[in-house]
Design goal:
It is a multi-pass membrane protein. This protein is mainly α and 461 residues long. The chain is built from 20 helices and no strands. Helix 13 packs antiparallel against helix 19.
């Protein structure tokens, strides 16, 4: 079937499946992003002394933070491949195998030799494992978001899809909690064996997630497309020819993830540097508590977006972050832990959650089912790739001692403004029927008759 022909109308979501899909997305994302984010804590606190030349601490820190961004560079490549597979063979398949790949690569990081043991081979292997983490993450959120969106009731798509990001926040909490006791170890134990423990635990994480996700049913949308031979043969080509504007909009909006990487990684490294001297454990508690608040804030913002629209909620988050990044980095520069804690929780736990909690529905609603996973994967992962390297950019802007934190704040705020413009100029989608999401005017007219027929048949039943 060509992309110009009317696709079969997706069945209404099964009333028993939305909660199961949301739970599978939540716990899988929590487990997978535990793996992904323990790397961020380690890159800021441990890896400069374990995997790089300890004779040049400033350069070691810069390179270590750059390896954090390597995964984000790999994510667009993974998105091209995994998005295509997900739109061809199904959402569930990608959800299962991305979790396995993430668990394996993270476990192997915990087994790597150090710089003292293997020289430059150690950071080389570290980068390779980080690339595998990035390839996995590229398909994780897009497949989980598509799964929950296509199972969700039409008037609650924002709420149900928010559980994917809620799980991501839970993963960050798990990662932070895993590192709090590790960071409290004496340096000799921390830098020899202690740092390995959170990575080795990922073997358990992968097994649990695999068991949960392999029992999940495929979405009604994809099942019906398969039954009618309406699955796109070349999803990526169709996406780039017919939906390139939506892809570009998602790329720009996805830059909001810069806030997360600056907060979770660069600000952590800056706060615990010699220039400021805040305690490692204390700053990890700031991150952990902010993410705990986000667990509550994300579904609330998502519910609000189901009522008033995706755009207003996203804009609250983007503009609010552009302001609060100055306040947060200023608080760190003062070395005031109570102020850092209060602003950090407000900034990342509450305000950032407004944008972070509703993008799974907002981005997914920009694309029709035939290319939805590809559209979300490609668009978000290119934007996230920039966000990943924002840590290295911030380190260069700030200088070796972090003195130019204002420059980092200006950079972060400028990115937030770009996100806000992309969203403000887009289409509001929260009231668009699921069957009509992402369709162009010609395609919408072609499907209007079948939609009416289905509604009439449903009323008769």
């Amino acid at each position: 079937m060509s992309h110009q022909e009317a696709a079969p109308v997706p069945s209404a979501p099964s009333t028993g499946k939305p909660r199961k899909a949301a739970f599978a997305a939540w716990i899988g994302s929590a487990l997978e992003y535990y793996d992904f984010f323990i790397y961020g804590s380690a890159a800021a606190l441990v890896f400069p002394k374990v995997f790089f030349n300890p004779d040049d601490p400033a350069t070691a820190t810069l390179i270590s933070l750059a390896t954090f961004g390597v995964a984000y560079a790999a994510r667009p490549v993974g998105a091209l491949f995994l998005g295509h597979i997900g739109d061809r063979v199904g959402r569930r398949t990608i959800m299962v195998w991305t979790l396995v790949l993430m668990g394996l690569s993270t476990f192997l990081i915990g087994c790597l030799p150090t710089y003292a043991q293997a020289g430059t081979l150690a950071p080389t292997l570290l980068v390779l494992m980080r690339v595998l983490q990035g390839l996995s993450a590229a398909g994780e959120q897009a497949s989980a978001n598509a799964m929950t969106l296509e199972h969700a009731p039409e008037h609650r798509r924002g709420y149900y899809t928010s559980f994917t990001l809620n799980g991501t926040q839970a993963g960050q909490i798990l990662a932070t909690l895993a590192f709090i006791p590790v960071a409290a170890l004496p340096d000799e134990q921390l830098y020899t064996w202690g740092w390995r423990i959170p990575f080795l635990l990922s073997a358990v994480v992968a097994v649990i997630g695999w068991i949960i996700r392999r029992t999940l049913d495929e979405t009604p949308v994809f099942q019906e497309a398969t039954a009618h031979a309406a699955v796109a043969k070349m999803p990526l080509a169709e996406l780039l020819v017919n939906h390139w504007a939506s892809v570009l909009r998602v790329i720009c909006a996805a830059l909001i993830a810069t806030v997360s990487t600056i907060f979770s990684v660069w600000a952590l490294a800056y706060a615990t540097s010699d220039a400021v001297g805040l305690d490692k454990t204390g700053m990890l508690w700031v991150n952990g508590c902010a993410n705990a608040v986000a667990l509550l804030a994300i579904p609330l913002w998502a519910k609000l977006s189901d009522r008033i629209g995706r755009k207003p909620v996203f804009l609250i988050g983007a503009i609010g972050c552009a302001v609060l990044i100055f306040v947060y980095l200023w608080a760190i520069s003062l070395g005031s832990y109570p102020l850092v804690f209060a602003v950090g929780v407000l900034f990342f736990g509450v305000v950032y959650s407004a944008a972070n909690g509703i993008w799974p529905s907002f981005y997914g609603e920009m694309f029709p089912a035939r290319v939805r996973l590809s559209g979300m994967a490609v668009g978000t992962q290119i934007g996230f790739a920039v966000a990943g390297f924002a840590v290295s950019i911030a380190e260069r802007i700030a200088g070796g001692d972090g003195s130019n934190w204002v420059g980092v704040a200006v950079f972060s705020a400028a990115v937030c403004v770009i996100c806000a413009v992309a969203v403000a100029t887009g289409r509001e989608t929260h009231k668009v029927p699921t069957a009509e999401l992402g369709l162009r005017p010609g395609e919408l007219a072609a499907t209007s008759a079948p939609v009416s027929t289905v509604k009439a048949e449903s009323a008769a039943l």
